[in-house]
Amino acid sequence: MTPAARTRTAIELLDAILASQAGADTVIANGFKARRYAGSKDRRAVRELIYRAIRRFGDPPASGRAAMAALADADDVLAATFDGSAYGPAALLPDEPRATGGVMPAWLAARLPDEASLDRAPLDLRVNRLKATRDEVSPLFPDATPVGSDGLRLTDPINVEASDAYRDGRIEVQDFGSQLIVEACAAAPATIVVDLCAGAGGKTLALAAAMRNEGRLIACDTARDRLRRLEPRAQRAGAECEVRLLDGGREAEQLADLEGLADVVLIDAPCSGTGTLRRNPEARWRLTPERVEALVVLQRHVIDLALPLVKPGGALVYAVCSQLREEGAAQVEALLAREAGWSAAPLPFGTADGPGIRLSPQRDGTDGFFVARLIKAC
Q1: Are 69 and 98 in contact (CB under 8 A)?
Q2: Which residue in 220, 241, 271, 321 is the catalytic one?
Q3: I need a surface site. Which of 37, 81, 281, 351 has the fewest CB within 10 A?
Q4: Helix, strand or coil for residue 319?
Q5: What's the rounded Cα separation, in Å, for the pair 355 and 251?
Q6: Is 355 left (phi over 0), alpha (psi -120 to 50) or beta?
Q7: How far apart are CA 161 and CA 158, in angstroms?
Q8: Could you say which DSSP state residue 120 is in?
Q9: What's the CATH fold of domain 186-376?
Q10: Which SS3 state, helix, strand or coil, does residue 29 take?
Q11: Where does CATH 3.30.70.1170 sit in the chain?
């Protein structure tokens, strides 16, 4: 592909991202399936152009061309690719629309802490203790550095899923912040643990490893498509767990048999995802104040489902991959105000934020999380 063709392709795929509810990575991957003539260098260059535009503009641009035109105004090399050639974009006109605005929507910038980041994230791996130790796996990734008790961090992206260590279940891709959330659970063998919003099961697998497959681990969710991905992942990891698909509106009934039994309940709650903007910067184009308000209501519903499941002396761990206080500290403060017999326990990592802690990309090198560990009185 010529440089002009790369710019035109970036514009077309940006338009597709703006029109889709799917993640940018998914749209880009599908776009290249229809453009098999693009080589690896072409795909890399186009992807970099797209994410350069996505990271630059906090409000969704009117079009992919408007975003790329704005970048070209400050980049003579990029501007030269608007050459009107057969496979390139038409020449730029002085008065045609350009994308404008800061890197964050104004309403979101006002709510986010200073450390909200759009920088590219590293790639973190978790060594699966059910099958290997970090010392055994580390030589396979000589450029990785240790993080936490079971983690490895790679600064350069690689195709992890093509490695033998991934295929045989010795490693999982998991942000270090997510690994710390599992550590906050302090799940032990011979206990009962409920992962109430398990999704595709990344934290479920880590909990199984912490429990050494001894005890009872129940993974629950209302999202069928995400939950069905857990079974093959668990088989690969050698992890044992029960899986429950919950019906929206009937969750309490379907969880009634677990009331007062759980040593630990983990809520990795549905949230705005503002803690993962460095991985999914286009998410801020779709987020609205109304969406955040709806998520806060949903989070409280999930908390109310979890409370009866915890046995006296047991723990509820509440986590959101969000940097917004209303989804994190404010939720737990409201819980403690309305529910007697619960207290916040300290955590040995992160920065104190009300009854919990906050992890941030710039300070902790993780995705942005709020985490709280609450203990039910005996």
Answers
A1: yes
A2: 321
A3: 37
A4: strand
A5: 27
A6: alpha
A7: 9
A8: P
A9: Rossmann fold (3.40.50)
A10: helix
A11: 123-173
End-to-end CA distance of the chain: 67
pLDDT value of residue 152: 97
Reading the block at residue 87, the tokens are 């496979």
Taking phi over 0 as left and psi of -120 to 50 as alpha, with beta for the rest, 115 belongs to: alpha
Asked whether the CA dihedral 224, 320, 242, 220 is positive or negative, the reply is negative
Distance of alpha carbon 64 from alpha carbon 17, whole angstroms: 9
CA 328 to chain centre: 15
Task: For the chain, give every residue range classified as CATH 3.40.50.150.
Answer: 186-376
Phi, psi angle pair for 245, to nearest 5°: -85, 120
User: How many Å apart are CA 314 and CA 258, to the nearest integer?
Assistant: 13
* pLDDT tens digits in sequence order for the chain, 378 residues long: 999 999 999 999 999 999 999 999 999 999 999 999 999 999 999 999 999 999 999 999 999 999 999 999 999 999 999 999 999 999 999 999 999 999 999 999 999 876 667 888 899 999 999 999 999 999 999 999 999 999 999 988 788 999 999 999 999 999 999 999 999 999 999 999 999 999 999 999 999 999 999 999 999 999 999 999 999 999 999 999 999 999 988 999 999 999 999 999 999 999 999 999 999 999 999 999 999 999 999 999 999 999 999 999 999 999 999 999 999 999 999 999 999 999 999 999 999 999 999 999 989 999 999 999 999 999
Active-site residue, 321 included = yes
Class of domain 123-173: alpha beta
Close Cβ partners of 178 (under 8 Å, ≥ 6 residues apart): 202, 203, 206, 367, 369
- From 240, 245, 250, select the one nearest 228 (Cα to Cα): 245
Bridge partners of 358? Answer: 351, 370
Q: Give residue 158's pLDDT.
A: 86
Please report the pLDDT score of residue 115 as a whole number. Answer: 61
User: Tokens representing 241?
Assistant: 């767990």
CA distance 74 to 79: 8
Q: Which residues 6+ apart lie within 8 Å of 313 measured at CB?
A: 375, 376, 377, 378
